[in-house]
């Protein structure tokens, strides 16, 4: 059994993309108690139906690159760092699908062996995590300066690199859809 990372405290999808025309808008975020992980992307249970994430292969607004990033994870410890720099921001405002409660700051090297989510039906292993690179629109949103130039936000953008903004992976290893829930434990692989 690997080192415990923490417990899932939030699951969410983006009904549509959060950035467009250089503006970041978190309004399309939808949180739920349970999520379905599939090779094609993630969905959350809402009112007895499934809401599909904007990065899912079947979503009409799916970005061209999202096949390499079908699920994302963020950590409450990283959001505390973000809050220290930018002021109060709720965990998950960056659009990550899974938010894990933890005290530690996690790096790409820490996640190199993957993560395992302990569910009622057994473990779900996810490997291949890489840094979710921050973008200028999200940085402007955190700063509260939607009209700032890309040059004006470079220092803050650099702060969000190296995993502070979260991590992404594809779920090519999944042979069948698997359900995870708020409260499930996450461990290193």
User: What is the annotated CATH architecture?
Assistant: Beta Barrel
Low-confidence spans: pLDDT under 50, at least 5 residues? Answer: none
Our Rg estimate from Cα atoms comes to 16 Å
Strand share of the residues? Answer: 25-35%
**pLDDT averaged over residues:** 93
Number of strands: 15
Tell me which oligomeric state these chains represent: single chain
Helix content: 10-25%
Q: CATH topology, anyone?
A: M1 Pyruvate Kinase, Domain 3
How many structural domains are formed by the residues?
Answer: 1
Largest sheet: 9 strands, mixed
Shape estimate:
globular
Question: What can you see in these coordinates?
Answer:
The chain is mainly β and 189 residues long. The chain has one domain: M1 Pyruvate Kinase, Domain 3 (Beta Barrel), CATH 2.40.33. The protein has three helices and 15 strands. Strands 1, 4, 8, 9, 10, 11, 12, 13 and 15 form a nine-stranded mixed sheet that branches. The longest helix is centred in the middle third of the chain and has 11 residues, at 76-86. 37% of the residues are buried.
